[in-house]
Amino acid sequence: MSTPTITATATAARPAAETGARTDEAAGVITGARQRIDDLDGRIIGLIQERMAVSAVIQHERITSGGRRVNLSREMEIIGHYSDQLGKPGTALAMTLLELCRGRI
Fold first, then answer.
1. Angle at 82 between CA 71 and CA 70, to 5 degrees
2. CA dist 29 to 24, 35, 43, 60, Å?
């Protein structure tokens, strides 16, 4: 009979251990919040992929009309916007997004 009790205790403690929480209640909150983050990450990735597709259209039109692939003044606007909204990490994020969106045509 003591084996089921040990198993139940081990099972109850396991979610807390996996989340780093010290209580089952906190582990439940963390597990739910992690699911929300996973959902948000999926949406963010989808939006980035959509941004990449739109950027490819812009680059294609610019190049076929005789322009350059990259418009540096526009990129500086984007970097400035992200920096204003998110601070220094926003600058790095904008630069990463711009890198992802270049040259995919």
1. 10
2. 9, 10, 21, 46
